[in-house]
Amino acid sequence: MSTKPRIFSGAQPTGNLHLGNYLGAVRNWVRLQADYECIYCVVDLHAITVAQDPAELSRATREVAAAYLAAGVDATTSIVFNQARVAAHAELAWIFNCVARLGWLNRMTQFKEKAGKNRENASTGLYVYPNLMAADILAYRATHVPVGEDQKQHIELARDIAQKFNKDFGVDLFPLPEPVIQAEAARVMSLRDGTKKMSKSDPSDMSRINLTDSPDLIAQKIRRATTDPLPLPDTVEGLSGRAEATNLVTIYAGLADQEVADVVAKFAGANFSTFKEALTQLAIDTLAPITGEMRRLTADPGYIDGVLRDGAARARALAAPVLADVHKAVGLLTD
Ligand code: TYM
């Protein structure tokens, strides 16, 4: 048994991973492997809370797993698997459906965004999505959850569920998981609109850089990214009120692993064409090796399936004793 603290995190296979997923989450996962016992999941059960084409879901599940590996997740020390392979997630989520309160779920901003105006027509799965997310984390008693800013509210809900479960059943079974949020690039914005999050569901592919994009496409997307007419400022304060400039500078800082202030100092007074050229080069240098490795891995689906199957077996072994404790606490008779 590892004595390191345990991490759980995941991404939905609802399409390609993009630069926001990479800078906000996956790159952080890779780095945390040195100090944590890590479980990284492709959350296919979360993906089906909105309609998915079955063949595309399977393809995207393998591709997202390939992205984790290509980015540097080590599937021999960390656990990489897809959620549907480990029944404990769905099982614990049901129990959490009976712990979480309607009022708590009603406050979730992501449900409101995703359900949109046609709320009556949203799946009930979309509504209880955060309970499944709490189950993902707590089935392993994970204490740390590296995510982008947008998932913070869901992790707070997981803490509330853990606390209420412990209190209701008079146990000390679940830890209260903490979000681990990377300061720079915790919220990468759309290349077309600096006030909107970069997202897989944005209808415009020009709004995001996908981990599968070719260098030419990356260059084209950055060239066409929305900007304002002013040159870059010489102080961080000078970025305020300039959403697009802030976003591009933040992306640069994220990719270069520098502070925003250092990037501002480097490009003070530069016009966007100069800055965009440097950003393009940096993005290509960073992403091309990952894209190449993803292509190599996805060419061998048998290998990816082996990784996912092996990860699932290890995940099941970790979740089984937790589920047994849960059953006992609740009074459910199981073997
Ligand atoms: P998902 O699939 O939307 O995103 C995966 C990860 O990428 C982060 N992210 C971003 N970070 C910065 N800027 C952006 N524009 C951006 N877009 C996405 C997300 O914050 C996330 O960390 N509900 C989760 C998946 C999930 C999960 C979990 C995460 C299911 N169970 C348990 C942690 C623990 C989601 O939809 O992520």
Brief account:
The protein has 335 residues and is mainly alpha-helical.
Please describe what this structure looks like.
By secondary structure, the chain is mostly helical. It has two domains: 6-187 and 300-330, Rossmann fold, CATH 3.40.50; 205-295, Tyrosyl-Transfer RNA Synthetase (Orthogonal Bundle). It is built from 13 helices and five strands. The protein has a three-stranded parallel β-sheet. It has a two-stranded parallel sheet with strand order 4-5. Helix 7 (124-138) packs across helix 8 and helix 10 (243-256) packs across helix 11 (260-267). The model has no long low-confidence stretch (mean pLDDT 96). The structure holds tryptophanyl-5'AMP. Tryptophanyl-5'AMP (TYM) binds next to strand 1, helix 1 and helix 7.
